[in-house]
Amino acid sequence: MIAPLRKKSHIFLLAWLSAAVLASAIWGVLEYRRLQGEFERSARLAHGMVARKLDQNESVLSAIDAFQSSRPDLNLGALRTFSRQMIAHYPQLYTVEFFQHVTRQSR
Asked: d(Cα 53, Cα 50) in Å, to the nearest integer?
């Protein structure tokens, strides 16, 4: 009578361990998928934000180029004012530097 009881307890223990391992594996797979989905969503949001800011920076460069091209002479005061206005609208920019092209004859 003791031997069949031990056999049943071993089978029960083995079944319980198998169920626990299976439940842990399923939980692990589901958690991995959840974390992967969360990472992908965060990455898409970050990519969108960076792409938007890069587009804004390109727009600022184009605006400064158009501003400078529309003036025959170099007016640093007007360029400084225009740059400050651009920086105020785009917080990712902290400075605008302007390097004037110097020809050999001007040197």
From this structure: 5
